[in-house]
Amino acid sequence: MIDTTLYRWLRPLLGQRGFASRVPERLRPRGTSSRVSRLAARYDADVDAAIQRLWPKARVYHDREFAQDRADFLLVVRGRGVMVETKVKSDPGLFRGSTLPPLLDRLQRDGRRLVVLLNQGDPTPARELVAAKLGDKARIVVWSGPEHDAELRAAVEELIRIECRHP
């Protein structure tokens, strides 16, 4: 019979089995913890490909760590930066934007522009939230593939035309 206390003591030396279940969700690497996280990782890759396709000369910076107050991408087009946040819903219902306030607060202080890309759903409640915090410096676009590239391009180009960086 194995002494469980000895096993718990040796477990860090033998390997990290079960490690992911003990680590809080906010500290786990992206794309490994659930079905939605895997969908989010795939969606981020599709968004990255779309950005490269629509703005081949633009610089794109990726935030590989999960943080609620930082956007997933920084897109720099013609010297102007636009933050891009991706949101994945597993159902086509309403998107209320309940996870956006930390990011919106930070961007409101920094005076940055933001495009929120949603894979599906109705973003009307979230649009109201974003408009209240960032006004005309933010857009929410439902983007699920190349067929929605025109909406993505229009949203980013509108934000690039905004002259003032700070309120």
TrEMBL record:
Protein name: Restriction endonuclease
Organism field: Kribbella caucasensis
